[in-house]
Design brief:
heterodimer, A: 661 residues, eight-stranded mixed sheet, 35 strands, globular, B: 634 residues, disordered N terminus
Amino acid sequence: MRTIPLLIFFVITFSLLGQKPPEKFGDIPMEDMKMTVYPADSSAAAVVLFDYGRSFFNVPQDGSYQSVYKNETLQQRTDGRRAIVDRGRAPIRFEFERHVRIKILKKEALGRANIRIAISGSQRLNELRAATYNLENGKIVQTKMSNDGIFFENLTTNVTLVTFTLPNVKEGSVIEYVYKPNSTLSLSWTFQGTIPTRRSEYWMIVPDYLSFERKMQGFISLSEYEEKGEAYLGQNAKKHHFVCNDVPAFKDEPFMTTDDDYISKIIFSIASIANQEAVASWEKLNTRLLENENFGVTLTKTDFLKEETEKVIAGLTEAPQKISRISDYVKKNYEWDKAKGYFPSTLKKIMEKKKGNSADLNFMLASMLIQAGFKVDMVLVSTRDHGLIRKFSPMPSQFNYVICSIRTPDRTYLLDATEKYLPYDALPARCLNGEGLVISAVNFGWIEIPAKTKEKTIIGADLSLTDAGVLQGKVAYSYDGYDALKFRKDYFEKGEEEYVKQFAGSKQWALNSKEFVDVNETDKLAKANYQISIKEHATNQGDVIYLNPFIANQMTDNPFKSAMRLYPIDYGNKIEKVYNCKITIPEGFEIDEVPQSKVIGLPENGGRFTYNVVRLNNAINITSNFQINKTLFVPEEYQHLQEFYNQVIAKQAEQIVLKKK
Amino acid sequence: MNFKLIVCVLLISARVLAEDLKYPVSAIAEDLKKGVDMVVREDHISFRIKAKNSATHHVHQVVTIFNERANQSAVEVINYDKFTKIVELNAYVYDASGKQIKRLKKSEIYDQAAFDGITLLSDDRFKRVDMSQAIYPYTVEFEYEIEYSFLFYIPSSWWGGPRVSHEHASYQLVYAEGLKPRYQLLNIESSPVVEKLDKGFESVTWKFENLRPSKIESYGPAMSEIVPHIVAAPNNFEFDGYAGNMETWQGFGQWISSLNKGRDVLPEETKQKVKSIVAGLRTNEEKVKALYEFMQNKTRYVSVQLGIGGFQPFEALTVDKYGYGDCKALSNYMIALLKEAGVSANYVLIGAGASANPLTTSFPSTQFNHAIAAVPNGKDTLWLECTSQTNPFGYQGTFTGDRKALMVTSKGAEVVNTIAYKPEQNLQVRTAQIVIDANGSAKAKVTTISSGLQYEDNGLNWTFSDVDKQRKWIEKNTDIPNFNINAFSISETKSKIPSATVNLDLTLSRFASISGKRLFVTPNLMNRISSVPEKLAERKTDVVRKRNFIDVDSIVYSIPENLYPEFVPQPVKYTSRFGEYEATFKFDAGQVIYTRRLKMWKGRYPKESYNELVDFYKNINKADNTKLVFLNKT
């Protein structure tokens, strides 16, 4: 019984490989050879003339596909990348063939002729052919790549790099290559690259007993799509044909999560096999993870931590204090090795090493919290650099990170132990990427990961101006949320001496004294107080003194310079920057002019800027408050946002004018 | 029951104390701990030359790490390839008391092919061991031995450095008879101990104790001039069957020649091509230019470094056939083309990169990472960068310019100087017309021509063929708070001193700041010095400035009619040994004309001059931020 699908598989594969691609290797149209400019994008240094892929899925009908989870999670642990890897016992077979032809238009694109393909460790390529075509005296001359130009190299034990380089490539050359791995690392097809693509075409042949879901991503829509039934030796199959024509080059913009979220591509996931219920589902993943020795089961064997935990929380009664204390303890005793993942090694090993990846630290945190009497669930997330979650596609490789959650009657805690300078209940900004999946027998489901922590700094300055134009006084910084994290990291990484040197060096300040408060207390604001004097800030013209009230954190650069925006603007977190300054004016001078108070807002309170001026007897008090209250702006809001920054910059540049009485 | 257990534990820990404590932190002298992130407890290197193509390199290092800034010292990365083999690798971690808390397991050694981001392929690999801990302080111990089946270079050793002190260090060279290496001890005085050993072997050993950290200052000399270290190199050596002697640069050059020998053969077809290219060209320079451009069009840079291929170029025939090669192969090919045209050219080894270490000319050894070609041309030399398809002929930029290099000659080699441009040649000239309206917004037309090294400013020279890159470059390098680009162009003039022209048509919204009846403008449109080095009470090292240039800005502002200047600043002029600065402000018939000229010299100046440098920058910073103030007449 088991051998039958295999037999069929081979036959089908054979017949499919017999199908010819629409373009023939080596058959280059003269007009492509003669092309000097790609009409659709005259600045392109190269253009993909076509990118043609064909794939054939085969999955045994006996249900062993389910073990793909196991294989995949192994892969997750070793390199943390998105991948489905065929590891020999082959639950899923994925035949693939690719044929690419590129026109080199400018010298800058010569590097396109050096190609690297990553394949899984044990694999080889079934076929690899490549050639360069040049026009010489009106004739097309082909130079084939010799085997000297191909290198196989084990990057790590799991990944082999195939590197090849084409001969005789110059401005005007056309290059092409064909390869067939016997497995691939990806289940998607990307239509778009960093150079334009004239035609991108993907054929997928799927036996009827296998159904899959697909989703298009990005701004490019399909130019053609066709689905056709075909029969192969008693097996019905469907041939899907996706085409995108004239795809522009992908260009990245500031404030984006990752290019991978926006580049145009089609993503597939297997929905069902042999009309059985969808084998891949989030519920299945939940069950599987709960039963997994390295995941759910780990949390049932934490008794040995009881004594240690009790010591840590001795004397505490309230939940928040206990959680805070344990989080603190894990952060202090375990170092994050900067690797992400959601499978921990064993708790014993983590204890021995005293460091580990995000999963190691957060499972350690969860285990101690359990011993403190909390009900803890693990929550799978995808970090911002790993891309957005696509719920329609229940693939565990969408996740690359795990955090803990505790539900108490009052509130839900989301916890992470990798950043020792963050308060216990704040998540690192990398985790703020929409929703997470709670793995739990009771609480299973999606949970929103709120971006409640802000990037917040409050500056209070109390300065007095001498009649010579020198500002003197004190400046107090108070850092909160991610700004506190940034400050603490900076402070500890550089050391106080170097930190102060660089901090003051970037300004015109002469520092008379400095003081740092609560730098070590992550549950409090971090504070820095300086006594300063500044000679260079005010312009003194004898009778008149001109002075900008900002001695720090003046916004002088608009981050949005492009006239257009294609993709959403994703800040990740909210922002608040407050600057409050009292300036006492020198004896004998009076205020001639001060900036007007002003309030600017973005629609739906997406952002708000208030600039408030109060004239006192012999002093001026100015408060500026800049807020971004939304984390995600759609491209339609771009112009507003750009103008918002414009106005803030202009307002903050305004001057105070003092005149001799 | 409980009581017994405790006694047991106590007994065991007492035993640990008595026998197994190593490198306790308490044993470090207080003054070695001041101002450091780590203390190197033991640092012993022994390099044993067994034959002219065989050596072993033994390292024993113990480091106490006080905070996370030093954590990278708990990570050891050892490179290897087919000529080097790691035969032993052990590592341990001790806590502050000196108790061993970890020992390296084989399974924890990470192994990977090494990529530098440029090289397409090499056989370099590395092993990486990470012993870092979360609880400070802790001590890591590494011990490893590498076997070399060649002899070409000898690892150096550095002691002290920023925020590091050394407790005990030694450096030992052991060598068989007739294979005594050369060495140079730098930035520290010490006499070595020489010992006779068995079988004709000899050793020379330096020992150091209690070395305090050295301080690196901004605008100061390179680390290599400050931090104590030793360099060593063999005299007789052999690499993959190629023997040589590098006691002198002559010898080093002869060895390179032996690698390159016979690799300059061109196919007949290309020989004919060369003849037809140079036919009718009169001067050498014309011929070199024509052939250089032919090479640029025919080839591309692909770096493949396998075995001796790290030093030996592919044959010219291979480059000719496939149209690619690395720096060595392309330079060798270029020289072969020139030779065919009857132009003699030399192969040159060089340390490339804007921040490369200067060549220690007094110490012949392998100090290079790049090859170029040089063509003697009367008094001058034409330098040919063969790995670039776009480099203007004869231009030598920040990658290989202004440094010492080794030119391989028929006799051997000689040290040569590459091109150093004068400030007048590294020139940036900007002219702009700004029309300010009554609301403070403005229209600007700006033209900037950047020549010489300024042609490379922030990658300007990589934008010529890509409009999107140009737009990004402009967005990033236009130092104006708010601007919209109405139109722009970037173009280049290719010549021996090339230039790039950037034309901008901008709308500057809210360019001038309005407060009541006043309007403020910072006349320095987009070329302000924003960072000033910090003032020091005591400067320890010389002041070093590496770039010279001239910037000239002329900006004309048209002001709305109803405004008149309340305040037009006086012209300013600052002259120092580092450079000259001049700015003028003129109000005339509704226009303000602002000019700024900054000329900076490169050079080395006594440490006493440091605060002069700070003051010079401070003055410029202040002058650059000067504002014009206009009053509304109405």
